[in-house]
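# nightly structure sweep
# worker-07 picked up a monomer target from the shared queue
# config: single-sequence mode, recycle default, output format = structure tokens
# input follows
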Amino acid sequence: MKILGWENSEVTLNLRRQIDDLVLEAMDGSIPQLLFSGYMAFVEKGSRRESESAYFERRKQLAAFCLYLQYHQSTESNYKRALTYFEELLWAVINEFTWCVMAHLPQDKNKFLEKPETQIDLFAAETGETLAEILKLHSNILPPFLVNTIRQRITERIFEPFLGRSWWWETVQSNWCSVCCGSVGMAALLLTEGELQNKLLHKVDRGLENYINSFGPDGACEEGIGYWVYGFGYYIYYIALRKEIDPKYRQQEEKINKIKKISEFPRLVQMSEKSFIPFSDVAAKSFLPTGLLSCLRQEYGVETPACSHITPFDFDNGYRFAHISRNLWWTDKEIFTTRLLEEATYLPDRQWLLQRSKGIFLGVKGGNNREQHNHNDVGSFVLAINGEQYLADFGAGCYTADYFGEKRYEFIQTRSRYHNLPVVNGWEQSAGMGECRVEQVSASTAFSEISMELGTLYGLPEVKSFKRRLTSDLTKHCIVLQDTVSAAEEIVIEEGFVSFLEPKLLREGEIILEGRESVVTLTYENTLLDYSLEKLSFENHFGELITAYRIGLKQKVKKRETDISLLFRF
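# output follows
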């Protein structure tokens, strides 16, 4: 799929200007260095930032210089200077001792446990794919020695290791499967032929079948919108390149229908033009690639989410060439005509209830605590008005060794205490424990309701039943939350709600959350519940220090049978 005239189009102008500025700035500096001290920061402290910042800065420059040289084609006064820098940058990348990030290499405190140069993780696969596309675009202007060395590196680091063993990510049902297999597949399509290509693509297609099977009939992505972009994006890019190179390639009708269903997910979870429901490891602000959206609209006839501008160059902190290049090559102005629709739906495979009307968005999450990129958040919900979260989900934490290790559920973002959930007799939900049973659900833009049984999620034998019912009546501008708990002995329930907005106790029994454009009022029975407020400070996914708040409403008296009713007005 190609949009003709992108090199001079008004649609791509902003992105091309960003690329020009990045290239001119980079040429006045030097190629980022991958320092030993950065790698040791991960080995000793589990911190990824020190080694990955320079790694991703190099990928950022690779994408910018490659595209700059493509659309300027000797017409710019800095072209030769840019080409010289680009050659040195390519030489630096192909001579990295590994294309993996440190966090993904088998290692202990003293050494690597396997050859780092032959390991394939997400980023090694992406690097191979990027270099393959660079050769496709620029082998005619690069020195033959450099071209052949790049080819050799891709063969040694991607093709041979991929065929030489079974990789764990080939069978896992997550973004890893799609990104790694899709990247290897695109590189194979661009650089190989004959029997070698057949072997590579056979293995790629088998892996991608596992990825596409991770989606149920409702098309929802349990990893969240960011990983929908990541995994599904690479899947679509591979399929598009396969069709372009092999006109005889055909997809089964059943597969096409599933792709269409998965493609609907972003529209359903969109809270505002630049925000999406932050369940799982989702960044606070999410931009979707307009190239990918354009492809889905044109090739599959999908109704895309609302957007008004081409995706900016730095929307993705990994600066993935596959995304950025297709934003430039594929973005079609027709997607800028889409608007945020009023709609409500229930996604039964993931047990998500989603309601959007007149700027108000409610998202309720069922499911279980064994999901990919899991947070202990079953039964939690989000309330946003014009994209601003009043009852929030904190999304992704800062990625470190601990965040993906045994200490994962010590982080604020992943603990059930810091979701819109109760603490039951002092206990939070635990990873892997129990699952939600949805007993009743209805979804419409005016009135939606869901009733869930959450009793098994806290691992407390004394809890016989915990029913949560959420009723959203947008004609009356209110949500009613009712929690009913039955126990074999007297226990205490503490309701919890989190927000980036500072709550104010207007009077006993009434709390307000005041945002940019609206006010949400929480009414509770103050004779039964004691109010408390916890101020939180934590790092978000990008390492920024965030302030947030947790409202606590704790029973004054222990009970066997508890019925708590809370009213939210806006």
